[in-house]
User: Fold this.
Amino acid sequence: MKQKVVQFPELANTDKINVLYSFDEIDDYFTAPMHGFLDKEDYYKRVSPEFSLKHITTPVLILNALNDPFLGERCYPISRSKHSKYVYLETPEYGGHCAFPLKDSKHSYAEVRAFEFFTTKDKATFY
Assistant:
């Protein structure tokens, strides 16, 4: 964040950088303003798939590890994926938050699954 503030001082509250205590504060004082959002609430609402998944009309793969430390239960669109012909949800038990690195591979699990998803013609048989 300190590097971003130096790079874009007009987009962040530099007075707050050394007194942050939560992710909410980071999102409110840095993430939201640096990306053109009014505040953290505006950021959460506009980037949340909860508000946009219903508008998807092209097949999409959502890959969320169940042990992702940043995601709560509401972050997994289980019901939406069950009732949509376009939303495919895969929730591996492990993978954390960083693209599912694979040991001894130049590709991550997310890259492998995305490639399989986009090269599979019949999405109904994807799983």
About this structure: The helical segments are 2-7, 23-34, 40-47, 78-82, 109-119. The mean pLDDT is 85.
